[in-house]
Write a structure and sequence with these properties.
mainly alpha; Drug/Metabolite Transporter; EmrE-like; transmembrane; membrane; transmembrane helix
């Protein structure tokens, strides 16, 4: 074999022996690029999740502040009605406020039935009753309207008792004391959730419960020392019972409606309003005619303010 042939032979062997290395190096570079790309995507996704989590937290805090402001405004309005306008009617005030929940029913019907029918009519689609009924059930969630009504019937009396006792406490004690004591509802909600819903027991939450109870006990004794009587203390105890009932109905709602997306919340509250309106009307009339809670002092101004309070 000539020298040129030998050199070509060795060159071919070197090319053959190094080609896998080159291929492997190329594959390694590709794998590294894929790894970097996946890592970059993962970091981008986690960063997006953190931003979304922060936004949700800020949104939640904003809503909490708004609710606190509305709660304080409503409490001051109730005391104004009781003391400045001399209308001692906590039962009637609660009755009207909860009955106004029924405005959710026509709004729900319009959004789930009338608007889809109108939209279908403009598009030239069929709008027969059977199709509308199936659409209504689908949009109201996994549970049927009858099941939502059953849940509302269970929650309605609990809701009324909690709000009635809180309004009564505003008639007997100060807004600050009533609000502070009513915040104990978080304590009862935590305890009932652990017992009824089998939620995990957390020691930090227990510490918060103890501090909350200590603050409420201090508020009650401070009211007793400041006024030298039992009116404010009794009002604080009524507020404490209202807090317990808030915990009861909150836990009951979470027990009966574990997934809010499966139930139309507007339909749920609308049923609470209509059940309250129909079932408690005889009691309102009986209280009026027996002078237990007379409505003779009811004026247009008071009725408007009660309506505003009910809507908030």
């Amino acid at each position: 074999m000539s020298s040129s042939s030998l050199e070509e032979h060795h060159a071919a062997k070197r090319a053959f022996s190094t080609s896998p290395t080159l291929t492997t190096s190329s594959d390694g570079d590709g794998s590294e690029r894929d790894s970097l790309l996946l890592d970059s995507t993962s970091r981008s996704g986690s960063h997006s999740k953190r931003r979304r989590s922060t936004f949700d937290w800020l949104l939640g805090v904003t809503f909490l502040v708004i609710v606190a402001l509305i709660w304080t405004f409503a409490s001051l309005l109730v005391q104004y009605i009781f003391h400045n306008l001399s209308f001692q009617g906590p039962f009637f005030l609660t009755y009207v406020g909860i009955s106004l929940f029924s405005v959710n029913l026509p709004l729900w019907y319009a959004s789930q039935v009338l608007f889809p029918r109108a939209k279908a009519w403009f598009k030239g689609l069929p709008t027969n009753g059977k199709l509308s009924h199936r659409e209504l059930l689908r949009r109201s969630g996994a549970q049927a309207s009858r099941e939502i009504f059953r849940i509302s019937a269970i929650i309605s009396p609990l809701w009324f008792i909690a709000n009635f006792t809180y309004n009564e406490s505003l008639n007997l004690t100060s807004v600050s004391s009533s609000t502070i004591v009513s915040s104990t509802s978080t304590v009862f909600t935590f305890l009932l959730s652990v017992v009824a819903l089998k939620e995990p027991f957390v020691w930090m939450k227990l510490a918060g419960v103890v501090l909350c109870m200590a603050g409420n006990i201090s508020t009650i004794f401070n009211d007793e020392d400041a006024d030298g009587g039992t009116d404010h203390v009794f009002g604080d105890l009524v507020a404490l019972f209202a807090a317990f009932m808030y915990g009861v109905y909150t836990t009951a709602i979470r027990q009966l409606i574990p997934n809010e997306e499966s139930v139309s919340i507007s339909l749920f509250f609308g049923f609470i309003g209509i059940i309250n309106m129909v079932c408690l009307l005889p009691i309102v009339l009986a209280f009026h005619y027996s002078s237990i809670e007379s409505l003779s002092g009811l004026s247009l101004e008071i009725l408007v303010l009660i309506g505003i309070k009910g809507l908030f």
